[in-house]
Structure formats: structure tokens, C-alpha cells
Design a protein that fits this description.
single chain, alpha+beta, five-stranded antiparallel sheet, 9 helices, 11 strands, globular
Length: about 325
């Protein structure tokens, strides 16, 4: 589909349709309920303009909010009439970070990486609002319903993403953290929150204080000319096939940035430090390294040492991050 036309600012074209709210069940299925007309997200107000920008091919949208949405951004389910005249189930997102739209567009030429993008734009109703209409994947997010295969499918699609992303030149700055400040917050948190095994934490963090400069030197010396997904976890992958089949596709590209692949891999791994049984005998970092090699991408010979340093830095951050991670 060609780029949607740019429109004049909307006037009195906003309807008063309802909004739907989404909660996620323990099985990962969206549970949708209608809200009162007065509680309307940004997307619902702009729906008439959006449908016009899609040249009449987008159906009415069932908008929803999730528990983790804090801004006026909205997501919705609809159908979109493709070039063959077939109504395709789609997800509508608006506004989206321009970077997310950019990466969705970039990845369309690569097989089994991202959902199909049916329509998109960087303006809506004369305003700088990026938006996308993309394929609604039928199954997922990946979960225990795949019987362990979710990790294998996920590593494979991560490898495809790294191979596809490597074809685009890198730009921008890698993410840097003030590790000394994080260590200080961790030590304060141990003292103030009464963590279990407080004495062990205190002793461990005291040892970290001596080792930290060398760890930081090693980590800051990593190769940051690669692309990271930035939010690599099972909740950001779905499939078109029923469990336990794949392939899986990645979505949510808002955090893509320059960096090192281990930033993604260790983040994914650390989500299962307290649930190691979920992985069986899988070693996620080694699996991702192998997948990168199979996709023709290089890995430093000493990457296991760099991975150990990142694990140590992330582990020492745990008391400072209990509001996010929740499990020491």
C-alpha cells in the first residue's frame, strides 16, 4: 500500500464511540470489556481521521488499554482490507515512537522477523503523530503453553532480528549506566528494606565495591556497534501457528538501540534466575551466540567473560531494582 495521504487538522469529525479495556488472564489471553463512552483514549478520538488516512480500508476499531499503559497512547483491534480485497485482522497503535515505526518498516523485507505492516504514517490530521496498522498475530505471547519450545522459537527469531538489523548502519549512543550510583542504591536498599539474607547481601556488596572498577572497565570496553532489541522477553513474541509450532515473530521495537547483543541476552536470562526450572537444560546466552553464528554474525571469542561481568553487574543491581524485578 502506498503512503497514506496527509490530512488537514480534524474539526468536528470525532465520534463518541465506546472504548474497550483489556486485562490479561493467567493464560495470557486478552480479556476485553467495554468502558463508558466518557473514558476515551487518544486513539478513539482520532479514529475517523485514521480511517480516512487508510483510504477506507480500516474497519471500526475496538480500542483497549492495558494495565501497563500510562500515557494517552492507545492500541486497538480491527480488520484491514488488503490489496487482494481480503479482510485481515490487525492491531492499530497510535501514537507510536517514530523509532518503532521505522524498525517495523525496515524489517518488512525479512522473513519471520516482524508482523506485516499494512499501513503507517508519521502524521495524522495535520499533527506529528506516528501510527501503524500491523498484522494481528493469532497465537501468543509465547508462554509455557509451548511446552519449552517457546525458548527455542524465541532464540531463533532473536537471531533473525540481529541478522536483519545488521544490514542497517548503526547510529546514536549506546545506553550507559552509573554503576557506582546503582551500587550505592543497592547498599541503601539492603539496609532499609530488611531483605532476607541481609548479612549475605551486605557482605556480597562490600566485595563488589572492590571489584566494580574492573567490571565497569571491562563492560564499557564492549563492542557497541551492534543493534539491541532493548526489550527482549517472551511477552514480545507471538506466532501465527498454534502451540507448540512457530516460527515466532518479534514486536515492540520502541527500545531498539546501539549496543551489544549480550545486553539483550543477559536481560532475558535474568528473568529466569529465580525460575531456573523453566529453562530445563537450556543456556540462553549460549543459544543466542550459536544462533548469531548460524546467521553469519560474529561473536567475540571471550564473550563468556563479558557475559559473566554483565551478570555480576545485574545481580548487584537487584536490591536497587526491587520495584521492577520483585525477586531478589
Amino acid at each position: 500500500m502506498s503512503e497514506p495521504q496527509r490530512l488537514d487538522p480534524p474539526e468536528d469529525r470525532f465520534d463518541r464511540g465506546g472504548v474497550v479495556s483489556v486485562a490479561v488472564s493467567p493464560e495470557g489471553e486478552p480479556q476485553i470489556a467495554q468502558q463508558a463512552n466518557g473514558d476515551r483514549p487518544f486513539g478513539a478520538s482520532l479514529e475517523p481521521v485514521l480511517r480516512e488516512a487508510c483510504q477506507g480500508r480500516l474497519s471500526p476499531v475496538n480500542w483497549f488499554r492495558t494495565d501497563w499503559q500510562r500515557s494517552g497512547a492507545a492500541t486497538g483491534y480491527a480488520t484491514f482490507r488488503d490489496d487482494g480485497g481480503i479482510e485481515q485482522p490487525v492491531v492499530v497503535k497510535l501514537p507510536v515512537p517514530p523509532q518503532e515505526r521505522q524498525w517495523l518498516l525496515r524489517l518488512q523485507d525479512f522473513e519471520h522477523v516482524a508482523p506485516r505492516l499494512y499501513a503507517h504514517g508519521d502524521t495524522l490530521g495535520g499533527y506529528d503523530i506516528a501510527w501503524v496498522v500491523m498484522e494481528r498475530l493469532a497465537q501468543g505471547p509465547l508462554s509455557a503453553a509451548w511446552g519449552g519450545a517457546e525458548f527455542d522459537l524465541f532464540v531463533q527469531t532473536a537471531g533473525r532480528f540481529y541478522a536483519a538489523a545488521a544490514t542497517f548502519p548503526g547510529h546514536g549512543q549506546p545506553r550507559r549506566k552509573d554503576w557506582e550510583a546503582i551500587l550505592k542504591r543497592s547498599r541503601q536498599s539492603v539496609r532499609s528494606h530488611g531483605l532476607a539474607h541481609e548479612q549475605r547481601w551486605t557482605h556480597a556488596l562490600k566485595k563488589v565495591h572492590k571489584k566494580l572498577p574492573k567490571w565497569v572497565e571491562t563492560w564499557e570496553g564492549r563492542d557497541t556497534s551492534q543493534w539491541c532489541h532493548g526489550d527482549l522477553h517472551l511477552g514480545n513474541a507471538m506466532t501465527r501457528a498454534q502451540p507448540p509450532d512457530g516460527p515466532a515473530l518479534l514486536f515492540d521495537y520502541a527500545e531498539v538501540r546501539p549496543g551489544h547483543w549480550l545486553e539483550d541476552a543477559i536481560y532475558l536470562e535474568h528473568l529466569y534466575w529465580a525460575r531456573r526450572h523453566r529453562l530445563g537444560d537450556r543456556r540462553l546466552c549460549r543459544m543466542i551466540a550459536r544462533q548469531r553464528k548460524e546467521n553469519g554474525l560474529p561473536n567475540e571469542p571471550d564473550w563468556p567473560r563479558l557475559a559473566s561481568v554483565m551478570r555480576a553487574l545485574l545481580a548487584m543491581s537487584t536490591p536497587a531494582m526491587l520495584h521492577a524485578d520483585g525477586d531478589p
